[in-house]
Amino acid sequence: MWAFIHKLGSPKWFYGISAKLQPWFWAAAVLLLVTGSLWGLAFAPADYQQGNSFRIIYVHVPAAFLAQSIFISMAVSGLVFMVWKIKVADMAAAVMAPLGAAMTFVALFSGAVWGVPTWGTWWMWDARLTSMLILLFLYLGVIALRGAFTSRDSASRAASVLAMVGVINIPIIKYSVDWWYTLHQPASFTLTSRPTMPTEMWLPLVIMVLGFYSFFIALTLMRTRSEILRRESSKRWVQDLVNGRVVNAQAEETR
Amino acid sequence: MAFASFSEFLAMGGHAPYVWSAWGVTALLLIATVWHARVEQRQLLNGIKRRARRANSLRGNAQ
Protein backbone atom coordinates (compact mmCIF):
# COMPACT_ATOMS: atom_id res chain seq x y z
CA MET A 1 0.00 0.00 0.00
CA TRP A 2 2.68 2.49 1.04
CA ALA A 3 4.90 1.51 -1.85
CA PHE A 4 1.95 2.12 -4.16
CA ILE A 5 1.23 5.56 -2.71
CA HIS A 6 4.83 6.60 -3.08
CA LYS A 7 4.95 5.32 -6.63
CA LEU A 8 1.77 7.29 -7.34
CA GLY A 9 3.46 10.28 -5.80
CA SER A 10 6.39 10.12 -8.19
CA PRO A 11 5.84 12.63 -11.00
CA LYS A 12 7.79 10.46 -13.44
CA TRP A 13 5.66 7.38 -12.75
CA PHE A 14 2.47 9.44 -12.88
CA TYR A 15 3.50 11.01 -16.19
CA GLY A 16 3.85 7.55 -17.71
CA ILE A 17 0.72 5.91 -16.31
CA SER A 18 -1.51 8.91 -17.01
CA ALA A 19 -0.48 8.85 -20.67
CA LYS A 20 -1.83 5.30 -20.88
CA LEU A 21 -5.07 6.03 -19.01
CA GLN A 22 -5.91 9.34 -20.68
CA PRO A 23 -7.19 8.11 -24.08
CA TRP A 24 -9.70 5.78 -22.40
CA PHE A 25 -11.23 8.58 -20.39
CA TRP A 26 -11.35 10.92 -23.40
CA ALA A 27 -13.04 8.21 -25.47
CA ALA A 28 -15.55 7.52 -22.70
CA ALA A 29 -16.22 11.24 -22.27
CA VAL A 30 -16.90 11.84 -25.98
CA LEU A 31 -19.04 8.73 -26.34
CA LEU A 32 -21.12 9.44 -23.23
CA LEU A 33 -21.52 13.17 -23.86
CA VAL A 34 -22.56 12.71 -27.50
CA THR A 35 -25.01 9.90 -26.66
CA GLY A 36 -26.40 11.72 -23.64
CA SER A 37 -26.79 15.02 -25.53
CA LEU A 38 -28.62 13.50 -28.48
CA TRP A 39 -30.84 11.47 -26.22
CA GLY A 40 -31.54 14.29 -23.79
CA LEU A 41 -32.12 16.97 -26.41
CA ALA A 42 -34.00 15.10 -29.10
CA PHE A 43 -35.33 11.79 -27.82
CA ALA A 44 -36.31 12.18 -24.18
CA PRO A 45 -40.00 13.11 -23.86
CA ALA A 46 -40.89 16.68 -22.89
CA ASP A 47 -41.88 17.25 -19.28
CA TYR A 48 -45.65 17.44 -18.78
CA GLN A 49 -45.33 20.63 -16.69
CA GLN A 50 -42.16 22.33 -17.93
CA GLY A 51 -42.28 21.33 -21.56
CA ASN A 52 -38.91 21.39 -23.30
CA SER A 53 -37.18 23.76 -20.88
CA PHE A 54 -36.63 20.73 -18.62
CA ARG A 55 -33.90 19.61 -21.09
CA ILE A 56 -31.62 22.06 -19.29
CA ILE A 57 -31.45 19.42 -16.54
CA TYR A 58 -29.00 17.42 -18.69
CA VAL A 59 -26.31 20.09 -18.37
CA HIS A 60 -27.41 21.66 -15.08
CA VAL A 61 -27.32 18.58 -12.84
CA PRO A 62 -24.04 17.07 -14.17
CA ALA A 63 -22.31 20.46 -13.88
CA ALA A 64 -23.59 20.94 -10.32
CA PHE A 65 -22.48 17.41 -9.33
CA LEU A 66 -19.04 18.01 -10.83
CA ALA A 67 -18.68 21.45 -9.26
CA GLN A 68 -19.06 19.86 -5.82
CA SER A 69 -17.06 16.70 -6.56
CA ILE A 70 -14.13 18.71 -7.89
CA PHE A 71 -14.04 20.78 -4.72
CA ILE A 72 -14.00 17.62 -2.59
CA SER A 73 -11.22 16.17 -4.81
CA MET A 74 -9.28 19.39 -4.39
CA ALA A 75 -9.65 19.27 -0.59
CA VAL A 76 -8.60 15.59 -0.47
CA SER A 77 -5.60 16.35 -2.71
CA GLY A 78 -4.73 19.24 -0.44
CA LEU A 79 -4.86 16.95 2.59
CA VAL A 80 -2.68 14.33 0.86
CA PHE A 81 -0.20 17.05 -0.06
CA MET A 82 -0.11 18.50 3.45
CA VAL A 83 0.20 15.16 5.26
CA TRP A 84 2.44 13.14 2.94
CA LYS A 85 4.13 15.95 0.97
CA ILE A 86 3.09 14.30 -2.29
CA LYS A 87 3.67 16.91 -4.98
CA VAL A 88 1.55 15.28 -7.67
CA ALA A 89 -1.46 15.71 -5.37
CA ASP A 90 -0.80 19.43 -5.24
CA MET A 91 -0.34 19.62 -9.02
CA ALA A 92 -3.66 17.84 -9.51
CA ALA A 93 -5.36 20.19 -7.05
CA ALA A 94 -3.94 23.18 -8.92
CA VAL A 95 -5.27 22.10 -12.32
CA MET A 96 -8.68 21.07 -10.97
CA ALA A 97 -9.60 24.54 -9.67
CA PRO A 98 -10.35 26.29 -13.00
CA LEU A 99 -12.56 23.42 -14.22
CA GLY A 100 -14.37 23.45 -10.89
CA ALA A 101 -14.99 27.17 -11.22
CA ALA A 102 -16.20 26.68 -14.80
CA MET A 103 -18.61 23.93 -13.73
CA THR A 104 -19.95 26.04 -10.87
CA PHE A 105 -20.53 28.85 -13.35
CA VAL A 106 -22.33 26.46 -15.73
CA ALA A 107 -24.55 25.22 -12.89
CA LEU A 108 -25.41 28.79 -11.85
CA PHE A 109 -25.90 30.05 -15.40
CA SER A 110 -28.02 27.13 -16.60
CA GLY A 111 -30.00 27.33 -13.37
CA ALA A 112 -30.66 31.04 -13.86
CA VAL A 113 -31.73 30.51 -17.46
CA TRP A 114 -33.94 27.62 -16.40
CA GLY A 115 -35.44 29.70 -13.61
CA VAL A 116 -36.92 32.27 -15.99
CA PRO A 117 -39.59 30.05 -17.58
CA THR A 118 -39.96 27.81 -14.51
CA TRP A 119 -39.94 30.11 -11.48
CA GLY A 120 -40.42 33.43 -13.25
CA THR A 121 -37.12 34.72 -11.90
CA TRP A 122 -33.49 34.11 -12.76
CA TRP A 123 -32.18 34.71 -9.26
CA MET A 124 -33.33 34.70 -5.65
CA TRP A 125 -31.27 34.56 -2.46
CA ASP A 126 -32.38 30.99 -1.94
CA ALA A 127 -30.07 28.82 0.20
CA ARG A 128 -29.07 26.47 -2.64
CA LEU A 129 -28.36 29.30 -5.07
CA THR A 130 -26.46 31.32 -2.50
CA SER A 131 -24.32 28.40 -1.32
CA MET A 132 -23.44 27.62 -4.97
CA LEU A 133 -22.43 31.25 -5.47
CA ILE A 134 -20.21 30.92 -2.39
CA LEU A 135 -18.68 27.81 -4.00
CA LEU A 136 -17.81 29.90 -7.07
CA PHE A 137 -16.12 32.50 -4.85
CA LEU A 138 -14.24 29.74 -3.00
CA TYR A 139 -12.91 28.43 -6.32
CA LEU A 140 -11.88 31.93 -7.39
CA GLY A 141 -10.28 32.40 -3.97
CA VAL A 142 -8.24 29.20 -4.31
CA ILE A 143 -7.09 30.25 -7.80
CA ALA A 144 -6.20 33.79 -6.68
CA LEU A 145 -4.40 32.51 -3.58
CA ARG A 146 -2.17 30.29 -5.69
CA GLY A 147 -1.16 33.26 -7.78
CA ALA A 148 -0.57 35.53 -4.79
CA PHE A 149 2.64 33.93 -3.51
CA THR A 150 6.12 34.09 -4.99
CA SER A 151 7.06 30.87 -3.21
CA ARG A 152 5.38 27.85 -4.78
CA ASP A 153 5.40 25.91 -1.51
CA SER A 154 3.61 28.69 0.39
CA ALA A 155 1.07 29.01 -2.43
CA SER A 156 0.43 25.26 -2.40
CA ARG A 157 -0.02 25.14 1.35
CA ALA A 158 -2.32 28.19 1.43
CA ALA A 159 -4.47 26.80 -1.40
CA SER A 160 -4.64 23.39 0.32
CA VAL A 161 -5.78 24.94 3.58
CA LEU A 162 -8.45 27.05 1.87
CA ALA A 163 -9.72 23.98 -0.01
CA MET A 164 -9.84 21.93 3.20
CA VAL A 165 -11.66 24.67 5.11
CA GLY A 166 -13.94 25.56 2.19
CA VAL A 167 -15.12 21.97 1.80
CA ILE A 168 -17.49 22.63 4.73
CA ASN A 169 -19.63 24.44 2.15
CA ILE A 170 -20.31 21.16 0.32
CA PRO A 171 -22.64 19.58 2.93
CA ILE A 172 -24.27 23.00 3.25
CA ILE A 173 -25.01 22.95 -0.50
CA LYS A 174 -26.26 19.38 -0.27
CA TYR A 175 -28.64 19.91 2.65
CA SER A 176 -29.58 23.51 1.84
CA VAL A 177 -32.66 22.34 -0.04
CA ASP A 178 -33.88 20.41 2.99
CA TRP A 179 -32.90 22.90 5.69
CA TRP A 180 -34.15 26.08 4.05
CA TYR A 181 -36.66 25.09 1.42
CA THR A 182 -37.50 28.33 -0.37
CA LEU A 183 -37.07 28.09 -4.14
CA HIS A 184 -34.86 25.24 -5.33
CA GLN A 185 -36.56 21.84 -5.15
CA PRO A 186 -34.96 18.99 -3.16
CA ALA A 187 -32.78 16.45 -4.94
CA SER A 188 -34.52 14.74 -7.83
CA PHE A 189 -31.87 12.03 -7.59
CA THR A 190 -30.58 9.99 -4.70
CA LEU A 191 -28.50 6.84 -4.63
CA THR A 192 -30.90 5.18 -2.20
CA SER A 193 -34.32 5.50 -3.82
CA ARG A 194 -35.76 4.96 -7.27
CA PRO A 195 -36.02 8.12 -9.40
CA THR A 196 -39.49 9.55 -9.80
CA MET A 197 -38.86 10.36 -13.47
CA PRO A 198 -39.58 7.85 -16.23
CA THR A 199 -36.61 5.79 -17.42
CA GLU A 200 -36.29 7.54 -20.80
CA MET A 201 -35.86 10.83 -18.90
CA TRP A 202 -33.34 9.81 -16.21
CA LEU A 203 -31.20 7.40 -18.22
CA PRO A 204 -29.78 10.19 -20.46
CA LEU A 205 -29.13 12.17 -17.27
CA VAL A 206 -27.10 9.30 -15.81
CA ILE A 207 -25.17 9.10 -19.10
CA MET A 208 -24.48 12.85 -19.03
CA VAL A 209 -23.30 12.69 -15.40
CA LEU A 210 -20.90 9.83 -16.25
CA GLY A 211 -19.74 11.79 -19.32
CA PHE A 212 -18.98 14.88 -17.23
CA TYR A 213 -17.02 12.77 -14.72
CA SER A 214 -15.01 11.11 -17.51
CA PHE A 215 -14.28 14.53 -18.95
CA PHE A 216 -13.08 15.74 -15.56
CA ILE A 217 -10.77 12.73 -15.09
CA ALA A 218 -9.37 12.98 -18.65
CA LEU A 219 -8.76 16.72 -18.41
CA THR A 220 -7.19 16.42 -14.96
CA LEU A 221 -4.80 13.71 -16.17
CA MET A 222 -3.86 15.82 -19.20
CA ARG A 223 -3.34 19.04 -17.28
CA THR A 224 -1.52 17.37 -14.37
CA ARG A 225 0.97 16.08 -16.97
CA SER A 226 1.42 19.64 -18.22
CA GLU A 227 1.87 20.82 -14.66
CA ILE A 228 4.57 18.17 -14.16
CA LEU A 229 6.35 19.50 -17.26
CA ARG A 230 6.05 23.04 -15.91
CA ARG A 231 7.42 22.28 -12.45
CA GLU A 232 9.98 19.60 -13.31
CA SER A 233 11.28 21.09 -16.56
CA SER A 234 14.81 21.26 -15.17
CA LYS A 235 14.79 17.61 -14.12
CA ARG A 236 16.88 15.21 -16.12
CA TRP A 237 14.08 12.70 -16.83
CA VAL A 238 11.81 15.39 -18.28
CA GLN A 239 14.51 16.68 -20.60
CA ASP A 240 15.48 13.19 -21.70
CA LEU A 241 11.84 12.32 -22.32
CA VAL A 242 10.91 15.46 -24.24
CA ASN A 243 14.18 15.97 -26.06
CA GLY A 244 14.98 12.32 -26.68
CA ARG A 245 14.93 12.81 -30.40
CA VAL A 246 16.31 16.36 -30.49
CA VAL A 247 19.32 15.52 -28.34
CA ASN A 248 20.14 12.37 -30.27
CA ALA A 249 19.81 14.06 -33.65
CA GLN A 250 22.13 16.87 -32.62
CA ALA A 251 24.58 14.44 -31.06
CA GLU A 252 24.80 12.68 -34.40
CA GLU A 253 25.26 15.96 -36.26
CA THR A 254 28.20 16.94 -34.11
CA ARG A 255 29.84 13.55 -34.50
CA MET B 1 -37.88 11.24 -31.28
CA ALA B 2 -39.71 13.87 -29.24
CA PHE B 3 -40.06 16.27 -32.19
CA ALA B 4 -41.85 15.96 -35.50
CA SER B 5 -39.36 18.03 -37.52
CA PHE B 6 -35.95 19.65 -37.27
CA SER B 7 -37.42 23.15 -37.06
CA GLU B 8 -39.60 22.02 -34.17
CA PHE B 9 -36.48 20.61 -32.51
CA LEU B 10 -34.78 24.00 -32.88
CA ALA B 11 -37.83 25.83 -31.54
CA MET B 12 -37.93 23.62 -28.39
CA GLY B 13 -41.65 24.31 -28.00
CA GLY B 14 -41.01 28.02 -27.48
CA HIS B 15 -38.22 27.42 -24.97
CA ALA B 16 -35.41 27.75 -27.53
CA PRO B 17 -33.66 30.76 -25.94
CA TYR B 18 -33.43 29.00 -22.56
CA VAL B 19 -32.49 25.53 -23.72
CA TRP B 20 -29.95 26.62 -26.34
CA SER B 21 -28.24 29.29 -24.25
CA ALA B 22 -27.77 26.88 -21.32
CA TRP B 23 -26.49 24.11 -23.60
CA GLY B 24 -24.43 26.53 -25.70
CA VAL B 25 -22.58 28.02 -22.74
CA THR B 26 -21.88 24.53 -21.39
CA ALA B 27 -20.56 23.24 -24.73
CA LEU B 28 -18.50 26.38 -25.28
CA LEU B 29 -16.85 26.13 -21.87
CA LEU B 30 -16.06 22.42 -22.26
CA ILE B 31 -14.55 22.96 -25.72
CA ALA B 32 -12.58 26.02 -24.57
CA THR B 33 -11.21 24.01 -21.65
CA VAL B 34 -9.89 21.26 -23.94
CA TRP B 35 -8.49 23.81 -26.39
CA HIS B 36 -6.68 25.62 -23.57
CA ALA B 37 -5.24 22.36 -22.22
CA ARG B 38 -3.89 21.48 -25.68
CA VAL B 39 -2.27 24.88 -26.20
CA GLU B 40 -0.77 24.72 -22.72
CA GLN B 41 0.71 21.28 -23.34
CA ARG B 42 2.17 22.23 -26.73
CA GLN B 43 3.73 25.42 -25.38
CA LEU B 44 5.37 23.61 -22.46
CA LEU B 45 6.78 20.86 -24.68
CA ASN B 46 8.08 23.38 -27.23
CA GLY B 47 9.63 25.49 -24.47
CA ILE B 48 11.57 22.53 -23.08
CA LYS B 49 12.72 21.53 -26.57
CA ARG B 50 13.79 25.09 -27.42
CA ARG B 51 15.84 25.37 -24.22
CA ALA B 52 17.56 22.05 -24.92
CA ARG B 53 18.42 23.11 -28.48
CA ARG B 54 19.86 26.38 -27.22
CA ALA B 55 21.91 24.58 -24.57
CA ASN B 56 23.11 22.12 -27.18
CA SER B 57 24.20 24.76 -29.65
CA LEU B 58 25.97 26.71 -26.88
CA ARG B 59 27.87 23.58 -25.99
CA GLY B 60 28.65 23.04 -29.69
CA ASN B 61 30.06 26.57 -30.07
CA ALA B 62 32.23 26.25 -27.00
CA GLN B 63 34.03 23.19 -28.32
TrEMBL record, chain A:
The encoding gene: ccmC
This protein's GO CC annotations: plasma membrane
Naturally occurring in which organism (per UniProt): Vreelandella maris
Known function: Required for the export of heme to the periplasm for the biogenesis of c-type cytochromes.
Name of the featured protein: Heme exporter protein C
NCBIfam families: ccmC
Location(s), subcellular: Cell inner membrane; Membrane
Taxonomic superkingdom: Bacteria
GO molecular function, one term: heme transmembrane transporter activity
Family the entry assigns: Belongs to the CcmC/CycZ/HelC family.
Keyword annotations from UniProtKB, A to Z: Cell inner membrane, Cell membrane, Cytochrome c-type biogenesis, Membrane, Transmembrane, Transmembrane helix, Transport
Residues in Cytochrome c assembly protein domain copies: 14-184
UniProtKB/TrEMBL annotation, chain B:
Record key words, sorted: Cell inner membrane, Cell membrane, Cytochrome c-type biogenesis, Membrane, Transmembrane, Transmembrane helix, Transport
Assigned GO CC terms: plasma membrane
InterPro entries the record matches: Haem_export_protD_CcmD, Heme_exporter_D
GO biological process: cytochrome c biosynthetic process; cytochrome complex assembly; heme transport
Compartments in which it is found: Cell inner membrane
Record function comment: Required for the export of heme to the periplasm for the biogenesis of c-type cytochromes.
Protein name as catalogued: Heme exporter protein D
Organism of derivation: Vreelandella maris
